[in-house]
Amino acid sequence: MKLRISIILTAVVLLLSCRGDNEDDVQVIDQVLMLYVKSATNGQDLLNSKIDGSYSAVTLLDLLDETTANKPITGQTFPKDADTVVYMDYPAGAIRLLKDEVTSNPEEKIYYSNFLIRYSKVVDEVTDIDYRVDTIRIEYSWTPSLFQISKLWYNNELKFTKVPGQRNVVEIIKENP
Question: Where are the domains of the chain?
Fold first, then answer.
């Protein structure tokens, strides 16, 4: 019995000693992207598959996967916001590579992801599917205390730059959905 109590107490002491003394040692992760896609013509929510003329499916394909060309990315969801507008909630999933770049902060590292976003639209209920393909490049900033999305390009056009304390919301206006 004494042996069991000794083992349990030793295990508890070891577990508690592994904890850092400073709660600031925790890294904050801010990488969830909220992507809205609307029509330039009428402002229609193009991610709501229940609306005629909107996309019926959205697929993300990783451009940086060395083993599988255009590997599908999973994990994104399509919830509705308070105004019932559908957006793509992208928490992560694409491969991130370290960018060879010197920053002003020696502790900072820059990572990037590149992926395709393929929109599908049923044109003819039986056979025809129309695909639209765009590209997304995301840069992430890493420090020991923070990992966050810092910039996003959509079809090589800068669409988002991080504002501290704000959510990562990007609105895309499509000319010819």
Answer: 26-174
